[in-house]
Write a structure and sequence with these properties.
Length: about 350
């Protein structure tokens, strides 16, 4: 079901001329880049650079070596093929991990279900060892202030172990509740994840819409003539939307999108958090018929010692976009909460 803000914008799109899948005349100075089509950013590159890797740009041989040793979903490289398990264990099938163990939730997937990409990210023909390009060391320049430390809470514990607050539906992470996708797929600061890293970009004269395959998120970005006009049209702070208040404009052949006032619940669980004082600026430029270069810069003096920038590419995909049938309040939710209430009752009885 579409909510009201999606419905209003999509109604406007129905009568508009869409730019989808253009492959000719896509890049001209001072013109808008043609971004329409289906794209993917699936890759094994991570936001930050591996500890033992110094250069941002690596050779094909180095890229293969890094990819071969890249952990996927918290499991060491190559272990997904062995994740089928039996509670008792056998010579051919390992025993299931113990409930609450450090790898309990990690073993929920096997390699049939994942598609994170098969190589490091390629940007303008180069293999990249991290998405972060500034600072040069490829690391997030986090501060050690109380606000920054609060944002660094380990939200991966529940995923890894299955142990966490189950006092009510609001206590569960947003992705488990099917409210928004996990892994920052919709951003701002859009990055691929375990699977469903496919996007559809649609442009009209008034909007750019980015539909994300993961949890069927949709970013609806209004367009303005210039940066000054866009900033004058900031939405009410009280709205605190998913994906924030994003406003865009074209400048020197780029789509620039500035986002503020992202819902605090989303920021608590984001790889790219900002506070109410911060902003994220995204830049989309058409590099070739088959590649969009995408940058995002994160600015927030409450959390970071300096602004920092990441860069990756969206590559043309034949699609299709699949339905992600994850629904708020689906049958997992009453099962999780019923199990928690039963545990509480058994503990009280003892």
């Amino acid at each position: 079901m579409l909510n009201t803000r999606h419905s209003v914008a999509i109604c406007k799109l129905v009568g508009a001329t869409l730019t989808i899948g253009s492959t000719m005349g896509w890049a001209q100075e001072d013109a808008r880049p043609e971004l329409g089509g289906i794209w993917t950013n699936a890759a094994l590159t991570r936001l930050t650079r591996p500890e033992n890797v110094e250069p941002l740009v690596v050779t094909a041989a180095q890229a293969y070596q890094i990819a071969t040793n890249t952990s996927v979903a918290g499991l060491p490289a190559g272990e997904f093929e062995a994740t089928d398990s039996d509670p008792a264990g056998s010579a051919d099938t390992p025993a299931a991990p113990a409930a609450g163990g450090d790898d309990f939730g990690l073993r929920a997937y096997n390699d049939f279900w994942i598609d994170p990409g098969s190589s490091l990210a390629r940007v303008k023909g180069e293999f990249r060892s991290s998405y972060i390009i500034d600072p040069e060391n490829g690391q997030i320049p986090r501060l050690e202030t109380p606000a920054a430390q609060l944002q660094r809470r380990n939200f991966g514990v529940r995923y890894a172990t299955g142990v966490g607050d189950m006092s009510g539906p609001e206590a569960l992470p947003l992705s488990e509740r099917c409210l928004i996708g996990f892994g920052n797929t919709a951003g701002p600061g859009m990055m691929g994840t375990l699977y469903n890293s496919t996007y559809r970009f649609v442009q009209t004269d008034e909007y750019v819409v980015i539909e994300v395959e993961m949890v069927h998120d949709a970013r609806i970005i209004p367009l303005y003539p210039d940066a000054a006009t866009a900033r004058l049209n900031q939405r009410p702070v009280a709205w605190q939307q998913w994906f924030g208040d994003s406003r865009g404009w074209y400048e020197n052949g780029e789509l620039i999108v500035e986002t503020v006032n992202i819902n605090p619940q989303q920021m608590e669980q984001s790889a790219v958090p900002i506070t109410a004082d911060g902003k994220i600026t995204e830049r989309f430029s058409r590099y070739s018929d088959t590649e969009i270069v995408y940058q995002f810069t994160v600015e927030d003096d409450n959390l970071y010692a300096q602004p920092w920038t990441a860069e990756l590419s969206f590559h043309a995909s034949e699609g299709p976009m699949y339905e992600y049938a994850c629904h708020e309040g689906n049958y997992a939710m009453p099962g999780i909460l019923a199990g928690a209430r039963r545990q509480e009752a058994e503990a009280a009885a003892q």
